[in-house]
Specification:
Low-confidence stretches: none
Shape: globular
Largest sheet: 2 strands, parallel
Oligomer: single chain
Number of domains: 1
Mean pLDDT: 83
Order of helices and strands: HEHEEHE
Helix content: 10-25%
Distance between the termini: 36 Å
Structural class: alpha/beta
Length: 124
């Protein structure tokens, strides 16, 4: 059975950003975070954070309006009310910052995607 590599989206993002950039990679899976502790990518700093963004989350040294972008990759479908989570976390995004959401489309609820989000609902 094929298993995706832990931190796939963080690794891809690290290869796309310019040197001096910083990624806060958040995952509740300690093994996934441990795999990112060894990630080095052309001057991009990856800061692994074990956490669950449905609970209060702290990123070292980050306050209101300080992030240039946020990437939620296959994460929001684990949250019953993603709007509440996004409203809280988006306070960290600076004006003009970018939000990228990667989600499955056309799925029924399952163990792997308990709260699917239809593409037409994403803008809301």
């Amino acid at each position: 059975m094929w298993e995706p590599a832990a931190g796939t989206f963080s690794r891809a993002l690290a290869h796309r950003l310019q040197a001096g950039s910083r990624i806060y990679a958040v995952d509740r899976d300690r093994a996934a975070i441990a795999s990112l502790e060894r990630l080095v990518s052309d001057g991009v700093e990856v800061i692994p954070v074990t956490g669950d963004f449905t609970r209060p989350l702290k990123l070292p040294g980050i306050g209101v309006s300080q992030l240039s972008g946020m990437l939620f990759a296959n994460a929001l479908h684990f949250v019953a009310n993603p709007r509440v989570v996004l409203e809280q976390l988006l306070t960290w995004l600076r004006p003009g910052g970018r939000l990228v959401i990667v989600e499955y489309d056309g799925r029924r609820p399952s163990r792997w995607v308990p709260y699917p989000i239809a593409t037409e609902r994403l803008p809301r």
